[in-house]
Automatic annotation (TrEMBL):
<protein>
    <recommendedName>
        <fullName>Regulatory protein YycH-like domain-containing protein</fullName>
    </recommendedName>
</protein>
<keyword id="KW-1133">Transmembrane helix</keyword>
<dbReference type="GO" id="GO:0016020">
    <property type="term" value="C:membrane"/>
</dbReference>
<dbReference type="InterPro" id="IPR018604">
    <property type="entry name" value="YycI-like"/>
</dbReference>
<feature type="transmembrane region" description="Helical">
    <location>
        <begin position="6"/>
        <end position="25"/>
    </location>
</feature>
<keyword id="KW-0812">Transmembrane</keyword>
<keyword id="KW-0472">Membrane</keyword>
<feature type="domain" description="Regulatory protein YycH-like">
    <location>
        <begin position="38"/>
        <end position="268"/>
    </location>
</feature>
<dbReference type="Pfam" id="PF09648">
    <property type="entry name" value="YycI"/>
</dbReference>
Length: 284
């Protein structure tokens, strides 16, 4: 097959993905017009106060930009084989199980942290030194769990400072409490390669606008607490093994009965996508 023909095939494929993404974007804009926070004349802060919905600090109206991102989930065995060529000691401190795009590693010498407040710093030091591509992961406080019942340190890959909130790009360190110390039992890792923007950067809806949308759509119950809101890339589409991510506002809500729910708002369209499934495209 000639080079020109290969180049033409790639151009058509890229064009098809972009047209598909544009259709999704336009459809989501139309859907969101059903309930629009702009139609509300009372400031969102006042509406939250009237319903006794609490939050710390202020709701940000900072305008940011983001991308449609493409990346390919790495086969962890292949990634290990590639990196080990230049690092013969890689993963030599324990037993590793590879399962497609995921690995689980258990150290032979226990990784022990004496104090709970040192867990994050000690974990960061460990993964930057011992984990494959460890310097590409950043600790995510909001996605981690540091309770008496469960300790799970979560780090993710990021793009231009915005983390990827998806199982395809995570490093998770699990700890158990033993004799008043914290012992790492294992860690799991996934990784995506070739993070690439599919289009030019686009303006995003703000945190305040996302909260207003959740309120207008009855996703914030009276007397609840907005624990945190975080901008992160979330998976919306898989095209022939390539993942496509968009920026979204992830919002943690604690209800009056102490139960919790996570809400997800598309930061491009300001549309709620909490229960949206990942679309898969095999042919285009």
């Amino acid at each position: 097959m000639g080079f020109k023909r290969i180049e033409w095939i790639f151009f058509i494929a890229f064009l098809g993905v972009n047209i598909f993404l544009l259709n999704i974007f336009q459809a989501s804009k139309s859907d969101q017009m059903i309930v629009s926070p702009e139609s509300q004349k009372i400031p969102i802060e006042q509406r939250l106060e009237n319903d006794e919905i609490r939050y710390e600090g202020t709701l940000s109206d900072q305008s940011l930009t983001g991308y449609y991102l493409s990346a390919k989930p790495a086969t962890m065995q292949s990634l290990y084989t590639e990196i080990k060529k230049n690092n013969s000691q890689l993963l030599s401190d324990g037993e590793t199980k590879f399962d497609g795009t995921r690995l689980i590693h258990q150290t032979m010498d226990k990784f022990i942290v004496p104090e709970k407040e040192d867990l994050v710093a000690a974990s960061q030091t460990y993964w930057k030194k011992s984990v494959m591509r460890g310097d590409e992961y950043t600790y995510q406080r909001n996605f981690s769990t540091l309770s008496d019942e469960k300790i799970e340190i979560v780090a993710t890959q990021s793009y231009e400072g915005i983390p990827i909130n998806d199982p395809s790009s995570q490093l998770i360190l699990n700890f158990a409490k033993e004799n008043e110390e914290y012992v790492n039992t294992n860690y799991s890792q996934t990784f995506v390669s070739n993070l690439t923007p599919l289009r030019e950067s686009m303006s995003l809806y703000t945190e305040k606008e996302a909260i207003a949308t959740l309120y207008s759509n009855n996703r914030l119950p009276a007397k609840s607490t907005i624990e945190w809101a975080q901008l992160a890339y979330t998976l919306i589409l898989n095209v022939r093994g390539q993942n496509v991510y968009i920026p979204a506002w992830i919002v943690s809500v604690k209800k009056a009965d102490n139960s919790r729910q996570l809400e997800v708002v598309n930061a491009f369209s300001n549309r709620i996508i909490t229960n949206s499934s990942v679309r898969k495209v095999e042919n285009y």
